[in-house]
Amino acid sequence: MNYVLDACALLAFLNKEDGWEKVRELLTEAVDAGETQVYMNSINLLEVYYDRLRLDDAFKLGEFLMCAFESPIQIIDTFPRPLLDEAARIKAFYRRVSLADAIGLATAFCIDSVFVTSDHHELDAVNEREAVRFLWIR
After folding, report:
1. How large is the average pLDDT for residues 90-105?
2. CATH topology (fold) of 2-136
3. Staple partner for 52: which of 27, 33, 61, 78, CB 3.0–4.6 Å?
4. What is the dihedral sign for C-alpha 47, 29, 111, 77?
C-alpha cells in the first residue's frame, strides 16, 4: 500500500500529538516490510519546515531534517501536468481546501495512494465526493 503524508500527519508524528502512532506504524512498515511506500509532496514538507523555523527551535529543526531526509519518506518534488491539473481542480472546487492540501491530495490521487491527514474541517467534503482514499490519524 502507498501513502502520502499531509503536513499535519508529519507534525503529529514529530510533536507526538494525537494520532502520531499511526504515522509511526506506516514509517515502520515502510522500513521493515518494504511493501509500504510513504511519500510526501515537497510543498507539504515545506509547511512542516517553515513551522519548525517559526518555532526557532534548533533541536526540533534538526529532528525534522533527520526525519524528512533520513527516513523512508520519499519526497516528490516534481509537478507533472496531471498533478497540476488535479490540484487546480480540487482547489477550484473546494474553496476551504488550502493550496498545499490540494497539492497533497492531487499527489495521492496521481500515484494511487492513501492521503494521511487529520484535517477533517477542510477535507471531509473531499472525502465524501472524490476518489481519493483517506487515512484519518484522529
Report:
1. 97
2. Rossmann fold (3.40.50)
3. 61
4. positive
